[in-house]
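Lab channel / #folding
Pinned by the channel admin:
"Please post every new chain as: sequence first, then the C-alpha cells as a reply. Keep commentary short and put observations after the output so the thread stays searchable."

First post following the new format, from NK:
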Amino acid sequence: MIMLLGMASFGIEARDYQLLVILPNYLLIVGAVVLWLAFVILGIIARRYEIVLGERTNWQFMMFAPTGILAFAAIQLVYCGIRGNMMLPKGGMNYLAYLLFFISGSLSLLANYRFYKVTKGK
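Reply from TO:
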C-alpha cells in the first residue's frame, strides 16, 4: 500500500514521472516559445533593414509566419502542462497542433529565404 502512494498513475515512481513526463513537456513549451521569439526578432531585424536601406523585405510576413509555433506551444501547455496528460489527445487536437507547427515552420522557412535573397541582392 505504501509503495502505491509513491507511484504515478501508470506504475513508475513520482520522481521518474517528473523527469520523464513533466519536465520534457515544459521544456518543449519553453523551446517553442524561444523558437517563436527568435523568428520574431529576425522579423524586427528585417524591418530595420527595410527602413535603413529602403529595400522591401516582407517583414510583416516574417512576423506573422511563426504564430503557429506559439499556437502549438499553447495547445501543448493546456493538454500536457495544465491537464497533466503525457501526450496530446488522439483524434484531432494532436493533428491540429502538429499541422500548425508544420505550416508555421514552412512559412517561416519561406519568409527567411526571401529575406536571405534580399540581403544577397538576388
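NK: Residues 49 and 55 are 8 Å apart (CA to CA).
TO: also worth noting, Helices lie at 2-5, 14-53, 59-64, 67-82, 93-120.
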